[in-house]
Amino acid sequence: MARMIWASGFLHITVIAGLIGLNTWWSAPASSLDQQVYRVDLVTLNESPPVPRPPPIDESYEVVSKKEAAAPQEEAALALERTPRLVSEEPDPLPEAPQTFETDSPEIRLDERNFEYPYYLGMMQRKIQQHFNVPRMLGVTRLETVIYFRVVRSGRITGVVMERSSSNAVFDLAARRALNAADPLPPLPEGYRKSYLGVHFAFQYTL
User: Fold this and answer.
1) Which of 14-23, 154-163, 185-194 has the lowest mean pLDDT?
2) What is the mean pLDDT of the chain?
3) What is the pLDDT of residue 142?
4) Residue 95 CA to chain centroid, in angstroms?
């Protein structure tokens, strides 16, 4: 009877010890031998060299003009005298207007000093005035437009230029239309030897 008790106790102790050992083995972490370990070496980047800074300026500075900066202060006046004048201080003179000469007709001036054919100027004036029609303009009492043109030997009108405008677009347009409608004028007189006659013709409006 005593042997059976000791055998039963020994068996219980063995089973309990086995259960404890099995539980410990099951819950234990896997051995480090079964795991693959990686070793990583971090690479350290080279630090950029520091940017050198100019040494501080202890001396005070003075703001100068462009002229003084171009040359030393004591030579500024001399340098200015030696600098060539790129732009003239005085405006260029305007070209002189061509000389014109009066005729017996106050509306006509010529480039020719001695034009000995007044009858031709009369025919010219009558033909141009026949085509000069200006409507009455309220509030306007006087207008004048001067047109320069050349009459070639055949009587054709060339080189038309608005020499002096009346500042009234309607009046200036009427003057140009009258001149275009009068083209051609009578041929130049046979005794006139030049190839053309320069005419300054004044169109006038008075009320």
Assistant:
1) 14-23
2) 77
3) 94
4) 30
